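Hi, can you check this record?
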Amino acid sequence: MKITLALAILLCGSVVGACGGDGAAPVDASMDAAIDGTLDSTVDAGAGVCEGAADGTSCGVGAFCIGEVCTAGRCGDAVLEVEAGEQCDDGANGDDGDGCRDDCTFTCEEDADCDDGDPCTGVESCDIALHLCSNSGPLDCDDLDPCTIDGCDTGVGCAHVLDDGDLDGYAPAATCTTAGLMGGDCDDTKASVHPGAPEHCDSLDNDCDGAIDEGLATLICLRDADRDGYGDPSVTLNACTCPPGYVGVRADGETDCSDREPDAYPGQPAYFVNGYCPDDPICPVFAVSYDYNCDGADTVRPLTGSLACMLITAPSGDPLCIGSGWEDGYPACGASGDFQTCTLVASPTPHCTASSASRRQECR
């Protein structure tokens, strides 16, 4: 019993304030909940040494002065405790970008600490003084080749893909600067069109040499604007097949005398009372043509002058009236004149009657 008491007195004398003492130095209640003055922690052991001490001063194993109170040190208390192995302590603010991680270590101490593994973000480096990472900016992948589409791939870095919309191996740019790439594609929407491609009869410049369907057997096509099957020899083109609105040269060699009038063509059998303007929508009277059969002349319908109406028997054995015709000579094409018409009356006995009326002259 005496030995125990003597030991207690000795300890109380060696640790200021640990056993109540003069009460000049506080004891951290968070580490000695009983605040009974007993020597039950390293914090209690350092009580009293923090008077006037700067925050972070060691006051025992794992304890540091904070606000002149000896407190168990911990990362995230915003006090740098170097002896506890802390490199920094920003109060565990969740921001590694301020140079201090929440585990109280520097964000970086060398360039390698900043490498994000992505070549596309540029070259990373560490500011040793601030322990902050930075990079040189996005990687510049422009290869200055007009034939490529440039980009960056996280896995491999810069990538340069041939600009080739139709996948025929040629880019639209005239000249490529990268060895092995080919440009000069004059139509990047058609794989059959590129430099060196074989020429086809398709009205395209397949080989991109500026000529269409060159070197191929082609037809001479004549414009047929009025779609009567006869072409205008003054408007032609060469093609493998004649496009709409054109016809090939006919075997009989016949061509249209007016590509504006669909009723005017070689061999037209019909006659017409109205003329047409062969070259323009409107023309003076003297330019009106009645040459519908393209023989170079305005030909009237071959009707004889009028005679007395007469009843005859046709080769078929049927009664037939003759004698119809112009009464006062042949009028000009489109002009009017008196015309006698002989009409068969079948009953009571077959006979002919004559009637006269104005009629316009038909021509072709």
About this structure: Confidence is low (pLDDT under 50) at residues 1-46.
